[in-house]
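Okay, can you check this protein?
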Amino acid sequence: MSNLDPAEIDKFQSFANTWWDPQGPLHTLHEINPLRLQYINEKVSGGLRGKRVLDVGCGAGILSESMAWQGAEVLGIDLAEDAIQAGKQHAVERGIEMQYRAVAVEDLAAAEPDSYDVVTCMEMLEHVPDPASIIASCAKLVKPGGSVFLSTLNRNPKSYLYAIVGAEYLLGLLPRGTHDYEKFLRPSELLDMIRASGLRLRDLQGMHYDPWRRVARLTGDVSVNYLCHCQKPA
């Protein structure tokens, strides 16, 4: 429970009632989610159906639910309890069988090592004090041969301009104060954490969001948003 920022938890607690509004303050999460889901489905051998999946930092479950719709057995975890309750309620309303828990990933890793075929941690690493601890826990939770998916924001002048000045202040794509530039991670820093955790990098790609068409696509440019696929050695 030490690897959290109370201000970050409060921030995401405040979005609980609007998390599932596709036109609400977190609408960009809805709009990038089809690309995230496609990327995960394509990288996991045989797709998500029948896989045991953990979604770390799930919020109210936009990605979690979409993976459950693919036939995965999904557990979403987050420390924002109001968001977790919103996720549970939404799943019940839509008749989706999945689980949510308000638990730290480090605590779950201690209790359930080598338990999941797939672990995802998307748009979360830039919101915690110690992202290396999160990655190490994801590596501990995934089964040998299983996949871990991570996404975050690069730290450079371009990402500051695009992700904070542009997205939060000029275009209003995200609520102001959503991101702290100092917590962004350069790919080299993320790769060091991945190697230290014992995972192996399999793929690294940029994710470009078009604010006018409100869709996302993969790109070779990792200067702003980027995501990666890692694997635990069998």
Notes: The helical segments are 6-13, 27-43, 62-69, 81-94, 105-111, 131-141, 157-170, 187-197.
